[in-house]
Amino acid sequence: MMRRVAVVLLLSIPGCLCAAQSPQITRIDITDFGVYNLEAHEVIQRSAEGLHQREVANVQLARQTRIIPLQKGVHFGFHYAIVGTPDGAPVQLRMVTLYPPGGLHNPAVATPILRSEFSVTRSIGGRQESYHGVALDYDWGLVSGDWTLEIWYGDRKLASEVFTLVR
């Protein structure tokens, strides 16, 4: 009888461990925001609208502000940390950018670009800071007004910052 109890206990433990390990995001903490200096690396993904997602490194806050100069080459956004459990668990987030009314007008695309969206995999944990931002790379992307950067997990919006781009 003791042997059966031991087998049952051993078989039920892995099931409990798996259920306890499913990622749960409590919130996202924005740790700083504004204009950044960074190293832009290779393009990871291109959209049909002519936008692209790049790898970046050495992201350093140059100036904390929500008022952004409308100049080619400027990088703006925010650093964030994902708070939840278990620490280090990977989660898939949607990074959304909403452009000012009227959108962006890439001459190679027939319709205005009102928003962009892409997915990233990041890790839960307060010590692991990530960056969500925009680079003003193209003349046609120099549009003044409010730009909103959001982070979504499933159907939950976890973070949002509004930046006003001015000439």
Provide a short characterization of the protein structure.
By secondary structure, the chain is mainly beta. Helix content is 11%, strand content 59%.
Attribute tags:
single chain, 167 residues, mainly beta, Immunoglobulin-like, five-stranded mixed sheet, four-stranded antiparallel sheet, 1 helix, 11% helix, globular
Q: What top-tier CATH class fits best? A: Mainly Beta
CATH topology: Immunoglobulin-like
Q: Domains counted in the coordinates: how many?
A: 1
Low-pLDDT ranges: 1-19
Describe what you observe in this structure.
Helices cover 11% and strands 59% of the residues. It has a 5-stranded mixed beta sheet with strand order 3-9-8-5-6, with no helix packed on it. The chain has a 4-stranded antiparallel beta sheet with strand order 2-1-4-7, with no helix packed on it. The relative contact order is 0.23. The protein is globular and about 50 Å long. It is built from 1 helix and 9 strands, in the order αβββββββββ. It has one domain: Immunoglobulin-like (Sandwich). The chain is mainly beta.
